[in-house]
Specification:
Number of strands: 10
Strand order of the largest sheet: 1-8-3-6
Number of helices: 10
Shape: globular
Largest sheet: 4 strands, antiparallel
Distance between the termini: 42 Å
Order of helices and strands: HHHEEEEHHEEHEEHHHEHE
Radius of gyration: 22 Å
Strand content: 5-15%
C-alpha cells in the first residue's frame, strides 16, 4: 500500500471516508504502528483521526504548553528535546525511589500534575491544513529549504529521534490538566496522524496509561537510576520505549553511532566484540593496533 493512498484517505473529513477505505487500512496500521490495540480500535482511529504535515524545524509540541493531541508518524523523523531547568523536582523525592506499583502510580500522578512552565521561543505556526489528493512529504521539501534554521539549543537537551511508525504526545493526554513535558521538532518533512483528546480517551488511553505505569515501575526497580534526582528519573521513564527483537536480530552494531541505552527486560543477548576495531574507535587511549597474517583470525570476546 502506497503512502499517497493512505494520505488520500485520512486527508478527507471523517464523514467522507468510506467503510471500505478505512477497513483496507486497518492491517497496514496495525503492522506499521505497534500500539497493542484491537482492529476495531484501529478502525475508530483511522475513521476519526486528522492528517498533519510538517516541514523541517516545525515545533510540533512545545514543552510547557497544554496538550490536546497524540501523534503517530506516517513518514519522516522528529527529535525530542527536554529543558531540564523547566522540570520541577518532586516535593517528596521518595515517591519515585520506593519500588512497586504504588510508587509508579505516584510518579505518573506527579508528572500529570506539573504546572505549566514558561513558554519557549515564538512558536512556528501550527500546520492544520489538509493535504491535496496524492500529496507526500516531498511536496513540502522546497518550502523547508527556504526556512531559516531553528536554534534548537533553546529547547534543551536532545533526548531521542522517532521515525515512521513511532508515536508521541500521550503523556499530556493521560490527565486533562497535564502540560507537555518535552518539545518535539520535525527533522525533515514529516507526515502525521493526529488523534484528538476525545478520540484518544476512548481508543488508546487505557492501554497507554498501563504502559506508562510499567515504565515508571521499571525505573523504580532498576538500580541504574537509584542515585538520579527524581525529575531525571521521571524523564527517563518518559523516554523509555519497548521494542521487540526476533532471534538472531542485531540490537546494536559495533562502530555505529550511539543513539541510546538498551535494557533487556526478557530473553537473552550475545555480546560479540571485534577487538581490532578498538584502536580506531578510541584513538585517545593509544591502544596497540593488531596485525594478522593471512591465516590468522582477529580475536573476539563475548
Amino acid at each position: 500500500m502506497s503512502l499517497s493512498h493512505i494520505v488520500e484517505c485520512i486527508s478527507k473529513s471523517a464523514s467522507e471516508r468510506s467503510d471500505s477505505e478505512v477497513i483496507e487500512l486497518v492491517d497496514w496500521f496495525l503492522n506499521m504502528c505497534p500500539l497493542n490495540i484491537k482492529p476495531d480500535v484501529a478502525r475508530d482511529i483511522l475513521r476519526n483521526c486528522a492528517f498533519r504535515q510538517c516541514q523541517r524545524d516545525d515545533v510540533i509540541i512545545r514543552q510547557g504548553e497544554q496538550g490536546d493531541s497524540f501523534y503517530i508518524i506516517l513518514d519522516g523523523k522528529v527529535s525530542v528535546y527536554i529543558n531540564t531547568e523547566a522540570v520541577l523536582d518532586d516535593p517528596d523525592d521518595e515517591a519515585t525511589t520506593t519500588g512497586g506499583e504504588e510508587a509508579a502510580q505516584a510518579a505518573v500522578n506527579a508528572t500529570a500534575a506539573q504546572p505549566e512552565q514558561s513558554r519557549g521561543p515564538v512558536s512556528v505556526s501550527s500546520l492544520k491544513r489538509k493535504a491535496s489528493k496524492g500529496s507526500t512529504s516531498a511536496a513540502i521539501a522546497a518550502a523547508t529549504a527556504e526556512k531559516k534554521e531553528l536554534d534548537r539549543t533553546k529547547y534543551g537537551n536532545f533526548i531521542v529521534n522517532f521515525g515512521a511508525g513511532k508515536s508521541f504526545g500521550e503523556l499530556a493526554l493521560i490527565n486533562k490538566d497535564c502540560v507537555r513535558n518535552a518539545s518535539i521538532i520535525a527533522d525533515e518533512p514529516t507526515l502525521l496522524i493526529e488523534v484528538n483528546r476525545d478520540l484518544y480517551n476512548r481508543s488508546l488511553r487505557s492501554v497507554q496509561e498501563a504502559e506508562l505505569r510499567e515504565r515508571f515501575e521499571f525505573v523504580s526497580r532498576c538500580n541504574v537510576f537509584d542515585s538520579w534526582p527524581s525529575k531525571y528519573r521521571r524523564q527517563a521513564a518518559m523516554s523509555l520505549r519497548k521494542e521487540n527483537f526476533g532471534f538472531d536480530a542485531t540490537i546494536v552494531r559495533q562502530g555505529d553511532p550511539l543513539d541510546g541505552l538498551q535494557f533487556i527486560v526478557s530473553g537473552q543477548a550475545k555480546v560479540v566484540v571485534n577487538i581490532p576495531m578498538h584502536p580506531g574507535q578510541y584513538p585517545l587511549l593509544g591502544l596497540r593496533e593488531f596485525h594478522f597474517g593471512s591465516d590468522e583470525q582477529p580475536p573476539t570476546g563475548s
